[in-house]
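ok so dumb question maybe but i'm new to this and my supervisor (M.) told me to 'just get the structure for STAS/SEC14 domain-containing protein' and walked off. so i did the thing. is this what she meant?? sequence i used:
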Amino acid sequence: MITIIPDAPENVAAFKASGEITKTDFENIVNPEVKRKVEKFEELNYLMLIDTELDQFTAGAWFEDVMLGVKNLAKWNRAAIVTDSKGIQNFTDAFSVLMPGEFKGFPKDNLYNALYWCQNGNEVEK
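this is what came out, is it supposed to look like this??
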């Protein structure tokens, strides 16, 4: 299931993935919220907190995730993937060179910093 993170900054489409993730989650939750943010801000600041194993994403969910990227290709500004998987964090960081905008991986205990970065491009000073 995917839910909207309610405390996210207004200009960030922020989601939490837990349990099984399906195509319907993207169609009913992610895509409409992303559309609203892009229409309002003319760019996409996106955060996905992955609180489940990757094998919980169905093939349809992966397809919808890819289509989300393609549909909004020119609108990507910042995207944070929040997970404790170092592999996904590293992939996200590397993905930044292939896509417009900035992509960055964060550990789960750094969710606040990831939201702050998505909002304005800066990290919280330590």
